[in-house]
Amino acid sequence: MNGRTLYDWWSQHGELFDRLYDIAFLGREREFRERSVESLSLADGECVLELGCGPGNSFAELRARVGESGRVVGVDYSAGMAKRAGEEIRRSGWRNVHALCGDSGRLAVPDESVDAVYASMTLSAMANPRRALDAAHRAMRPGGRLVVLDAQPFQTVPLTLLNPTIIPVAKRATDWNPETDLPSALAERFESVAVETFFGGVILIAVAQRAE
Length: 212
What we know:
By secondary structure, this protein is an alpha/beta fold. The chain has a single domain, classed as Rossmann fold (3-Layer(aba) Sandwich), CATH 3.40.50.150. It has helices at 3-11, 14-24, 29-38, 59-66, 79-92, 129-139, 163-174, 182-189; strands at residues 47-51, 71-76, 97-101, 114-120, 140-151, 192-198, 203-209. The chain has a seven-stranded mixed β-sheet with strand order 3-2-1-4-5-7-6, sandwiched between helices. α1 (3-11) runs parallel beside α5. It is globular, with a radius of gyration of 16 Å.
């Protein structure tokens, strides 16, 4: 099952998908989403782009920070996820939030048109995250910010002993690419990068900025 087909399947099993995130974040998903969105330092009226928006789990947090005069645009490779995100937008009555089905490596947005980019648990599931980061860099205005909330194998002993068990299960369930070194990929593309890790290094929040 390829990544698009897998996430189309997850889009039809919303409750199971929520439980998957409960496990991934050890019951602290909301806390980490809020923390990572806060790191974007969004202001009223700004435009924020979300790579791999899934069913729209982050839309409410993002919209609250850009206000009614701002704009939130979510892109997802899975048509099923983009459809669910659109349903969330309609349910909530948000006129300034949009969900598109598309490739994060070939963004259908003009260059230097967004103030910030957000990626939550998505880059490590992409076959070519560096291409997505290149596209995000082009889409961002000078001085724009990018925040990544993602997962990697445990980095500290004795938790590293869990990796041989967890990695195969996570790869099958989410198309995860644990060999992806996101901090290095970010450092290759962005001029300023800061990374914070949690739970023995398995959860990371990275903040990157495009040069002015």
